UniProtKB/TrEMBL annotation:
Positions of the UniProt region annotated as Disordered: 116-136
Subcellular location per the Swiss-Prot or TrEMBL entry: Membrane
PANTHER family assigned to the protein according to its UniProt record, in alphabetical order: PLASTIDAL GLYCOLATE_GLYCERATE TRANSLOCATOR 1, CHLOROPLASTIC, PUTATIVE SEROTONIN TRANSPORTER
Source domain of life: Bacteria
GO cellular component terms, A-Z: membrane
Pfam families in the cross-refs: LrgB
Protein name: LrgB family protein
Transmembrane intervals: 21-40, 52-70, 82-104
Keywords carried by this UniProt record: Membrane, Transmembrane, Transmembrane helix
Major localization listed first in the record, in broad terms: membrane
InterPro entries, per database record: CidB/LrgB (IPR007300)
Topology versus the membrane: Multi-pass membrane protein
Length: 136
């Protein structure tokens, strides 16, 4: 269902000329939320079936190293704009996650845990036991 929703989101994005408001991920999230809401499926039940996609998020992020290395000279030339974009994207992710959570009534330690999670979603997937292995 996740991949089908993304496929539909990508098709909508292409049809809209890749306009930012028709982002494939945004469209997929809206579609998934609508289907889960319409069918009364709890998120936990959906997530059990989506474990493979969640698991692949980490390796997909790591796989980006190959094209980055192949274009290292280009990356170095564009370092400043890339860092600015990464900073803006990270700040936007953290602030929006905290604002949405606060608006929904989340507080305390859960709210505090959302800030780093919103900026580093693939990392815990790729390295689930990294911190546990260092506690000896």
């Amino acid at each position: 269902m996740t991949l089908l929703a993304y496929w539909a989101g990508d098709a909508a994005s292409r049809a809209a000329g890749r306009r930012p408001l028709v982002n494939p991920v945004l469209v997929a999230v809206i579609l998934l939320a609508a289907v889960l809401g319409a069918t009364g499926t709890p998120y936990a039940t959906y997530f059990e079936g989506a474990q493979f996609v969640h698991f692949m998020l980490g390796p997909a992020t790591v796989a980006l190293a190959l094209p980055l290395y192949a274009n290292l000279a280009r990356v170095r030339r564009a370092m400043l704009p890339m860092l600015a974009g990464l900073l803006a994207g990270s700040v936007t992710a953290v602030v929006s996650a905290l604002a949405i959570a606060r608006a929904l009534g989340v507080d305390g330690s859960v709210l505090a845990s959302l800030a780093p999670k919103s900026a580093t979603a693939p990392s815990p997937s790729a390295f689930p036991n990294a911190s546990a292995g260092s506690r000896r």
